């Protein structure tokens, strides 16, 4: 059964159709990459799927349940999490507090006013584990704002993981990272395969073709092809619409 | 990790100083000292409450004087009805403030930035006009209270020093409560929503509910300050909720350094002492006060909030 | 009853026009510069005082009014150069504090110069009469002139904003701040002009009402907050919204005060109706604001929250 089932998803800004009757199916457990030229509507799609942006119409079913009209925070609570292309962290919090906040969101009420949250062992332990998983456990007590760009990308992923998603929407997790940092993040994503269903938007084609089980190609708000990496690489339509253009630039 | 141990020390010193102040007043034979200090403590409670949402929640409420007024009128209205107990006055004030904060907060919090500032200001003005039109309670002129609230049926608060200590106990209690809130799960969500609301949504929180709850808590705390202020002045009028008063509360919070609670207490002290001192110099003291305010905001690099920011 | 309604309708319009003149400059400043200015009401108040003084000096209210315009323009210019300019990049909290400080300074300065007692200025004889309305009712000519002058100003503003290049860019920038940098003009100079111009409009409003209201240091404050309500209702940055909001607020406030108790009498006893009317009427515009915000958080013509 498909974990995520998107049908006829639409969104336009005025006359511009950013998402144009888009269909997409993501199977449970797969890493599904979405590629496409700049301006194809990839980030808008993630925003629509995660509930950050509203859609004009269509259907987004997660595990059989309709998500349309649900705000982002309620989608997160049923297991749909996302990361941001432009790093979105809590800069005044420590790295640990960033991740512990995400753990807190899914474990018990946050309408607790009296006991100090910093002393909740359970939150901190889980947060530390997530930081360890992305490789920045040694930065736990640093202010998130003071981390390097690559470390912030790792933190971003750790926060998303800490929400314990069943489906993780990753919006260019490698954006702006150095070779070593990217390798680390690719390792983490590879480790996640099987545990978590992943939708990955990425410009780094090597990473995409190395990681993905299936690839969908998004052009002008529509999916023009879906298939295994090998098939996508050889698809003449894709080459014409996208890869060819990429070589040309 | 942060300034908690140092702040605990500073709080101990500051509150101890306030606790021994009446003895100093006796020694100096200056009874006015206790009166002005009581006023400072009342405003300190209000500034503390405002700092909770301004400093930690990032909500610049420019209408917090409304809650001072609601608290003060709770005393006036219940006293007229023959109910004199301080506890009941507080309960009524808290209940009324909670309702007002819940309704106006729910509307204001749908917006942010400039909108939020203007809307909180407008709602406070609405409350102001409501009490101006209450002719039974003197309208514009307000009412003089015949007696202060009673405590367990006793009239001990008639004594200025007793009232002073009552306010001090309340302040310390509310300070500790506010510190606990900011360090709790709730406080973390509140602060996180100030830092990055979208991030908080992306981990599963709806900031609105937490911000609104904080707004209501802050309003209720400010109403308590209003109850004590009415007792302190034995006089209640719409001037309690004049928008200038709201502005002064914001000034107090910023003078003391936003987002550290104890700073609000210090800020209320600084602002009111400055006011007292300038008022001795000239009857046109607002001119000087305004001038100081403008200059400090303009010529400290990050504004007042930078000038007084505690080293973390 | 109909006559009274017509009379109050005109009064409401006159009040609304006045609010528009104050809110127009303010909404542009809010929208384009994302700047909170609490000192705008003080400029209106100063405009009224200057009109009184200039009228006394020249012996003519009309001349006094004309002199007030460049004077308030100059005040706006000076304030922008000395204070506001330094605050554009600051957090809203700093802007609120600094302009709040300015309110204290200017209000006190006015009290020092003119005293705290209310002043008044005689309106010109030519405009002091009244014209017949329906039946025996008459309406003061001066108030009609205020309405007329306000409408002309509004029309002028509308022409500038919809028909000139700079106006169109301004409008784009005011409703969408990202457009400001694309304005393609010297932004600092533009900001200064908008500020000074907004101050002049507020001064104009103050000067116009000087003959029909008492001129006192507190006159700017209630008007400032009502102007905020107007802007919130109309949508930040929208001059059209300010116009609609101002008329709405002016009419609701004026009609509510005179007809609220009458309408309430239909559902309750006369004495309690009068009481409830007195309490509710001043709150009406704020309730209106709340209702509009609940339905449209960005205001009637606003593009953003």
Outline the structure in words.
- Chain A contains 9 helices and 10 strands.
- By secondary structure, chain A is of the alpha/beta class.
- Chain A has 2 domains: 164 residues, P-loop containing nucleotide triphosphate hydrolases (Rossmann fold, 3-Layer(aba) Sandwich); 77 residues, no CATH class.
- A 6-stranded mixed β-sheet of chain A has the order 6-7-8-3-9-10, sandwiched between helices.
- The longest helix of chain A is centred in the middle third of the chain and has 14 residues.
- Chain B has 312 residues and is mostly helical.
- The C terminus of chain B is likely disordered.
- Chain B has 13 helices and 2 strands; from the N terminus they run H-H-H-H-H-E-H-H-H-H-E-H-H-H-H.
- Helix content of chain B is 74%, strand content 1%.
- In chain B, strands 1-2 form a two-stranded antiparallel sheet.
- Chain B has a single domain, classed as ABC transporter involved in vitamin B12 uptake, BtuC (Orthogonal Bundle), CATH 1.10.3470.
- Chain B is globular.
- In chain C, helix 8 packs across helix 9.
- Chain C is mainly α and 305 residues long.
- Chain C contains 11 helices and 2 strands, in the order H-H-H-H-E-E-H-H-H-H-H-H-H.
- The model of chain C has no long low-confidence stretch (mean pLDDT 87).
- In chain C, strands 1-2 form a two-stranded antiparallel sheet.
- Chains in contact: A-B, B-C.
């Amino acid at each position: 059964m498909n974990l995520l089932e998107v049908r006829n998803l639409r969104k336009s800004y005025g006359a511009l159709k950013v998402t144009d009757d888009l269909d997409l199916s993501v199977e449970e457990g797969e890493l599904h990459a979405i590629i496409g030229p700049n301006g194809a509507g990839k980030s808008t799609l993630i925003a629509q799927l995660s509930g950050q942006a509203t859609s004009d119409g269509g259907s987004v079913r997660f595990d059989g349940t309709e998500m349309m009209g649900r705000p982002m925070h309620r989608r997160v609570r049923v297991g749909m999490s996302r990361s941001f292309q432009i790093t979105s962290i809590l800069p005044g919090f420590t790295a640990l507090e960033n991740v512990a906040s995400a753990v807190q969101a899914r474990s018990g009420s946050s309408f607790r006013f009296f006991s100090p949250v910093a002393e909740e062992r359970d939150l901190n332990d889980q947060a530390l584990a997530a930081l360890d998983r992305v490789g920045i456990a040694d930065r736990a007590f640093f202010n998130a704002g003071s981390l390097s760009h690559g470390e912030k990308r790792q933190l971003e992923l750790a926060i998303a993981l800490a929400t314990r998603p069943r489906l993780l929407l990753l919006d260019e997790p490698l954006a702006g990272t150095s070779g070593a940092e990217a390798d680390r993040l690719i390792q983490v994503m590879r480790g996640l395969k099987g545990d978590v269903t992943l939708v990955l938007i990425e410009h780094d084609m090597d990473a995409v073709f190395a990681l993905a089980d299936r690839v969908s190609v998004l052009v002008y708000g529509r999916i023009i092809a879906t298939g295994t990496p090998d098939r996508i690489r050889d698809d003449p339509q894709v080459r014409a619409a996208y890869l060819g253009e990429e070589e040309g630039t | 990790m942060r300034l908690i141990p140092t702040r605990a020390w500073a709080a101990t010193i500051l509150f101890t100083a306030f606790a021994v102040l009446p003895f100093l007043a006796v020694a100096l034979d200056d009874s006015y000292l206790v009166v002005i200090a009581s006023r400072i403590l009342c405003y300190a409670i209000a500034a503390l409450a405002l700092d909770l949402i301004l400093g930690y929640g990032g909500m610049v409420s420019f209408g917090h004087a409304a809650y001072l007024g609601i608290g003060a009128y709770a005393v006036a209205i219940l006293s007229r009805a023959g109910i004199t107990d301080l506890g009941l006055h507080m309960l009524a004030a808290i209940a009324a403030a909670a309702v007002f904060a819940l309704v106006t907060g729910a509307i204001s919090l749908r917006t942010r930035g400039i909108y939020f500032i203007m809307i909180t200001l407008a709602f406070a003005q609405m409350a102001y006009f409501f009490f101006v039109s209450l002719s039974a309670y003197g309208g514009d002129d307000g009412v003089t209270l015949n007696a202060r609230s009673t405590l367990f049926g006793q009239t001990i608060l008639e004594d200025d020093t007793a009232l002073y200590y009552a306010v001090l106990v309340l302040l310390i209690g509310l300070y500790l409560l506010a510190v606990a809130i900011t360090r709790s799960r709730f406080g973390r969500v509140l602060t996180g929503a100030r830092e990055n609301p979208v991030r908080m949504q992306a981990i599963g929180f709806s900031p609105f509910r937490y911000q609104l709850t904080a707004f209501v808590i802050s309003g209720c705390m400010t109403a308590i300050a209003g109850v004590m202020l009415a007792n302190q002045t034995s006089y209640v009028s719409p001037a309690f909720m004049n928008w200038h008063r709201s502005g002064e509360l914001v000034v107090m919070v910023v003078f003391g350094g936003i987002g550290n609670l104890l700073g609000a207490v210090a800020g209320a002290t600084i602002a009111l002492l400055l006011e007292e001192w300038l008022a001795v110099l000239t009857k046109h003291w607002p001119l000087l006060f305004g001038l100081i305010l403008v200059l400090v905001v303009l010529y400290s690099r990050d504004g007042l909030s930078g000038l007084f920011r505690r080293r973390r | 009853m109909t006559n009274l309604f017509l009379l109050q309708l005109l009064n409401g319009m006159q009040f609304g026009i006045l609010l528009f003149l104050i809110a127009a400059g303010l909404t542009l400043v809010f929208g384009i510069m994302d700047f909170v200015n609490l000192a705008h009401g003080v400029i209106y108040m100063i405009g009224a005082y200057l009109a009184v003084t200039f009228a006394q000096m020249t012996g003519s209210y009309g001349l006094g009014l004309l002199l007030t315009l460049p004077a308030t323009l100059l005040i706006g210019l000076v304030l922008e150069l000395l204070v506001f300019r330094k605050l554009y990049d600051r957090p809203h909290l700093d802007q609120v504090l600094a302009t709040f400080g300015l309110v204290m300074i200017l209000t006190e300065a006015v009290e020092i110069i003119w005293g705290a007692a209310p002043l008044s200025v005689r309106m010109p004889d030519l405009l002091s009469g009244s014209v017949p309305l329906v039946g025996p009712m008459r309406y003061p000519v001066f108030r009609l002139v205020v309405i007329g002058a306000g409408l002309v100003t509004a029309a002028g503003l509308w022409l500038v904003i919809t028909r000139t290049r700079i106006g169109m860019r301004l409008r784009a920038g005011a409703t969408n701040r990202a457009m400001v940098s694309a304005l393609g003009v010297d932004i600092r100079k533009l900001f200064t002009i908008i500020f000074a111009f907004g101050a002049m409009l507020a001064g104009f409003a103050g000067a116009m009402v000087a003959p029909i209201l008492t001129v006192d240091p507190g006159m700017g404050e209630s008007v400032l907050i009502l102007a905020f309500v107007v802007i919130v209702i109309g949508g930040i940055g929208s001059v059209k919204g300010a116009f609609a909001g101002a008329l709405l607020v002016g009419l609701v406030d004026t009609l509510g005060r005179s007809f609220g108790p009458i309408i309430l009498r239909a559902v309750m006893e006369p004495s309690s109706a009068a009481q409830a009317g007195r309490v509710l009427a001043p709150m009406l515009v704020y309730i209106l604001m709340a209702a509009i915000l609940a339905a449209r958080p960005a205001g009637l013509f606003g593009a953003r929250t």
